[in-house]
């Protein structure tokens, strides 16, 4: 427990590895500050991303509500959704003021909501507009290398399946100053598929992403989509392991990182080549750290019954912690039991780890 980080360790640039080597994808309703704190306990070097925040929410909403985060989350990136250069520039300045380590422009989300707002994946058909947005954001942060402006996008939209389309998009946006591209290796079908189906039905074309790295060797190219385990991640980072002699600069993992989070515990050593901890990390220690975190949050916001933070809102993010292990189902059931929501989290943790035959007596 004592070896769990109270703040992330700085990534050593001397290793020659990209800071984007292993990232957890921005996921709506999931990657909130509590989730990111949990992921940081598992990996000191993983790059974490906020949920997508629209420019309207930041320009007209409560900035602190949307932008505040835990200091332990660094390196953490703010992902924005929008298409107005001036609004995006304003939000990039806010991100710089709040101390974010990156501002990422969403050009990949295919939901109807973003289509109505004419941003997300729709922007892939307007590369020159994306270039204007990127340029405005870079200018807004004064070209600060500590706040890189990056783009997350698909390889195409609808039935446009030509590599030339994504190559030209990247080339145009790169000319505006963007040096980091996170590429979801599927098309976004804007009509006829839900966001969930858009993550599963359009075929993966990893070859397109590798070709981007061949054509733009000076850019940082990070691959996203279909990476279900660490073996798949490592393969993308090793020359010749997947398709050819091109190694990508990084991987971004979404649902797998959320549902099977223990995979992150291997990233520092396996993917970043950084030394292990002085003591082996355990699931129990991470769980206890999250209980301590949530009790601190609840005390800070006036208790678990009436405060702003209720522990089920936080603990929902860790329910995959024991995935695949004996007893995991019962452990999840205890933490998910709504009849226990008024008990202190430390007490619920104790119940979750009791032997089933002892549960009735303890409860």
Question: What would you note in describing this structure?
Answer:
The chain is an alpha/beta fold and 363 residues long. The chain has two domains: 16-270, TIM Barrel, CATH 3.20.20.70; 283-362, no CATH class. It has 17 helices and nine strands. Strands 1-2-4-5-6-7-8-9 form an eight-stranded parallel barrel, surrounded by five helices. Strand 4, helix 4 and strand 5 (102-107) form a beta-alpha-beta unit. Helix 6 (127-140) runs parallel beside helix 7 (163-175) and helix 15 runs antiparallel to helix 16. The longest helix is centred in the C-terminal third of the chain and has 18 residues, at 283-300.
Quickly name the level 1 CATH class of the largest domain. Alpha Beta
Sheet having the most strands: 8 strands, parallel, barrel
Question: Which stretches are poorly predicted, pLDDT < 50 over at least 5 residues?
Answer: 359-363
Q: How many discrete structural domains? A: 2
- Count, helices: 17
Helix percentage: 25-40%
CATH fourth-tier homologous superfamily of the largest domain = Aldolase class I
């Amino acid at each position: 427990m004592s070896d769990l980080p109270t703040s992330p360790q700085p990534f050593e640039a001397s290793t020659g590895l990209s800071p984007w080597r292993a990232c957890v994808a921005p996921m709506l309703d999931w990657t909130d500050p509590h989730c990111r704190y949990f992921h940081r306990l598992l990996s000191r070097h993983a790059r974490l991303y906020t949920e997508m925040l629209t420019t309207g929410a930041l320009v007209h909403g409560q900035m602190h509500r949307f932008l505040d985060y835990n200091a332990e989350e660094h390196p953490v990136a703010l992902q924005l959704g929008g298409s107005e250069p001036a609004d995006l520039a304003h939000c990039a300045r806010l991100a710089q003021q709040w101390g974010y380590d990156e501002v990422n422009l969403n050009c990949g989300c295919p939901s109807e909501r973003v289509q109505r707002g004419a941003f997300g994946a729709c922007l892939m058909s307007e590369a020159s507009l994306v270039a204007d947005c990127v340029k405005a954001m870079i200018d807004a942060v004064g070209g600060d290398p500590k706040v890189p402006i990056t783009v997350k996008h698909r390889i195409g939209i609808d039935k446009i399946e030509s590599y030339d389309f994504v190559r030209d998009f990247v080339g145009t946006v790169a000319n505006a100053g963007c040096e980091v591209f996170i590429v979801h290796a599927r098309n976004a079908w804007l009509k006829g598929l839900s966001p969930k189906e858009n993550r599963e039905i359009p075929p993966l074309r990893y070859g397109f992403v590798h070709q981007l790295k061949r054509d733009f060797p000076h850019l940082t190219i990070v691959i996203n989509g279909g990476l279900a385990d660490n073996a798949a991640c490592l393969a993308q980072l090793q020359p010749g392991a997947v398709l050819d002699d091109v190694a990508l600069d990084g991987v971004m993992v979404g649902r797998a990182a959320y549902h099977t989070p223990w995979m992150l515990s291997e990233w520092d050593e396996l993917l970043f080549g950084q030394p292990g901890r002085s003591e082996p990390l355990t699931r129990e220690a991470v769980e206890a750290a999250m209980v301590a975190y949530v009790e601190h949050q609840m005390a800070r916001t006036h208790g678990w019954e009436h405060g702003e933070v209720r522990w089920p809102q936080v603990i929902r993010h860790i329910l995959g912690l024991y995935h695949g292990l004996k007893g995991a189902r019962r452990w999840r059931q205890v933490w998910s039991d709504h009849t226990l929501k008024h008990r202190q989290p430390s007490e619920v943790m104790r119940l979750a780890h009791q032997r089933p035959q002892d549960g009735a007596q303890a409860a």
